[in-house]
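Schema walk-through. Below, the input block comes first and the output block second. Nothing else is stored per chain. Lengths vary across the set, and this one has 346 residues.
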Amino acid sequence: MKWVVRLFVVFLVCCFLLAGAGFGAFKWFEGKISEPGPLAGGEDRIVFVERGAGVIKVGQQLEDKGLISDARLFRLAARYKELESDIKAGEYLIDTDSSMVDILRKMNEGDVILHQVQIIEGSTIAQAWKVIEETDFLKGEMPELLPEGSFLPETHAFSRGTTRTEVVEAFANYQTQLLDEIWPARQEDLPIESREEAVILASIIEKETGGLGDEDLVAGVFINRLNRGMRLQSDPTIIYGISKGVPLTRTLSDGRVVRRTLYRSEIDRVTDYNTYQIDGLPPTPICNPSEAALRAVLQPAESDYLFFVADGTGGHAFAKTNSEHNRNVARWREIERARIAAQRGE
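--- output ---
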């Protein structure tokens, strides 16, 4: 019997030793995955996680950069913390004091570095396309060009590795979402029959105002003219018909290239975009209109104004009658003559 008792005692001792060893190993593991990385106290490092990269590949990246001590422990930590299946792609700024668990949580939350893409208000779709195409933190080919006026021009942030198609879709969706909001709340009895027509008129307002204000007043003028069957007579529509929105220029005698106004022959020429010569709206937008311009079209200022012209200060002079408008135009022409003389050095 004594040998049985001794065997049992040995068995218990072994169990306690194994339990102790297991507990010790667990505490060591917990400590390793929760302690700062090998580069603690150093400068932050950038890590880019590709789409579809799993915990094995990411762990090896981190080990290669010296941010973790052991990629195998990183994989075990991901499994232990149930964080292995939702690592998000993107560019991460990793604090060198971060533990393996800290890094895993950051990548599961998608706390990526964001970069801005700015589409300027009043830019054409071709100009916006060029911005996206030349943005180097994006990837992939450009999709097929969208129709003019499809974007809501703003500044938005995207992570490195976002595809150009995704960015295009995002800017188009921003406009759709805005129209979904403001179209149902539009003023009653507007001479605008569709959202597409709203975008067309908003694009004209955008080019007339340049984002400097007066959108609602300018919108009110155009609405009044449409209601009275008057032509819009908007210079930017003619320019779009000539150059697709690229500013018109001329070369001075000294070789300098400066912007120019429209020639009389261009105003008299009948084109689909010459709103001096056609009734109603042109066939398409002439740029990507801003939120302010879109809202102005659907909630224009109420007034009796039928005319406006630049006042030389960035704003506009409004008029109710043609004679009043002609006086405003004469003042603007004086300002333009002075500007042109200054360009020539006269």
